[in-house]
Amino acid sequence: MQALPCRVTAINPCKKQTANPVSAHRIVFANEKGGTGKSTTAVHVAVALAYQGARVAAIDLDQRQRTLYRYLENRAETERRRGIALPGARFAVFEGPDIADLDALCAEISDGYDFLIIDTPGRNDEFALHAATCSDTLVTPLNDSFVDFDLIGQVEGETFRVKKLSFYAETIWEARKKRARATIEEQRRELDWVVVRNRLQHVEARNMRRLDGALKELSQRVGFRVASGLSERVIYRELFPSGLTLLDKGQLGELGTSHLVARQELRSLLAGLNLPKLAGTPLEAALAIQ
Ligand SMILES: Nc1ncnc2c1ncn2[C@@H]1O[C@H](COP(=O)(O)OP(=O)(O)OP(=O)(O)O)[C@@H](O)[C@H]1O
Ligand SMILES: [Mg+2]
Predict the structure, then answer these.
(1) 37: Cβ below 6 Å to ligand 1?
(2) Residue 227 phi/psi, 5° resolution?
(3) Per the CB 3.0–4.6 Å rule, which of 46, 121, 150, 154 could disulfide with 89?
(4) H helix or E strand, kind and range, residue 30
(5) Contact status, residue 160 vs residue 213, Cβ threshold 8 Å
(6) 67 in ligand 1 pocket by Cβ < 6 Å?
(7) Is the CB of 148 under 6 A from ligand 1?
């Protein structure tokens, strides 16, 4: 795995002039709500794709927390310490100062790569919005709570029917319209917006059903798809210091059967994202051998 220098000043400035120099499939993890599992999911998706044989690059837009960057740094450190090579990603933190620099970093880091994963901060951020607008797959993790749901739509207090789109949903709606023009002019793929139900705890069936209904209603109005994400599991919090993921089976020691279920969830998530297939190994086969 390779970390790029954090600053982008060394990049050839002529790359900034190119309309769409990124050919890698861009997967952007974004939600203005903090703590929904963007970074954790982004790392697991990056590593899953790398296990599949994909060349994966990753950018962390959260200059302060740097969770994705730190996770992958820890992974590189584990590789050094244990003298092993693990599938992973080339990674960098974006530190500004402007959109052109972000475009340049995206182009540089993903040159010759299959996927570019971008993790964004859980707040309103101009770079995150730009990344979302340019994404091929926009992943919005959402916890099973109407507090989280409020970030994409407001529901009526008695019926839980959607009464209003949130500012964020409106913003992504606008971004998709802008992107539709690029789809025609620059022959880009259409933006696929996937709301991922994350950190699920299968104990609150009524709340889950109400959210199901609200998400279905909103998805038809705003045009996103809903996919299932990761359950709430302690192991996701424990893996960060080693940079390991649930897929690094040989490195994790003895794990109980619940982790087999967790790996299955990850497989379902990847299938739900409906990413372009790489020539050669199908994703299911690649993950099944882990
Ligand atoms: N599936 C999960 N099960 C249990 N804990 C989780 C899970 N996903 C994430 N966490 C934990 O929840 C916290 C927030 O996760 P994470 O940093 O991935 O969210 P985020 O959306 O990137 O947050 P931010 O908006 O602050 O960047 C972390 O402590 C992480 O370890
Ligand atoms: Mg994060």
Answers:
(1) yes
(2) -130, 155
(3) 46
(4) none
(5) yes
(6) yes
(7) no
What is the domain partition of the chain in residue ranges? 25-286
Q: Enter the tokens of residue 191.
A: 């933006």
The alpha carbon of 185 and the centre of ligand 2 are apart by a number of angstroms equal to: 33
Establish whether residue 144 lines the binding site of ligand 1, counting it when its CB lies within 6 angstroms of any ligand atom.
no
Strand partners, 143: 198
Q: Let me know if 276 is exposed, middle or buried by CB neighbors in 10 A (0-12, 13-18, 19+).
A: exposed
How far, in Å, from the CA of 183 to the mean position of ligand 1? Answer: 33
* CB distance 232 to ligand 1 below 6 Å: yes
Q: Residue 268 belongs to what H/E stretch?
A: helix 258-273
pTM above 0.90, yes or no: no
Report cis status (omega within 30 of 0) of the bond before 97.
yes
Q: Along the 290 residues of the chain, how does pLDDT read in single tens digits?
A: 555 543 332 232 223 334 556 789 999 999 988 899 999 999 999 999 999 999 999 999 999 999 999 999 999 999 999 999 999 999 999 998 999 999 999 999 999 999 999 999 999 899 999 999 889 999 999 988 888 888 888 888 888 888 888 888 888 888 888 887 777 777 777 889 999 998 877 666 788 888 888 888 888 888 889 999 998 888 899 999 999 999 998 888 777 777 788 889 999 999 999 999 866 555 555 555 44
Quick one: fold of 25-286? Rossmann fold (3.40.50)
Q: Write out the DSSP string of 136-194.
A: SEEEEEEESSHHHHTTTEEE-TTT--EEEE-HHHHHHHHHHHHHHHHHHHS-PPPPEEE
Q: Which helix (H) or strand (E) holds 223?
A: none
Pairing of strands 56-60, 115-119: parallel
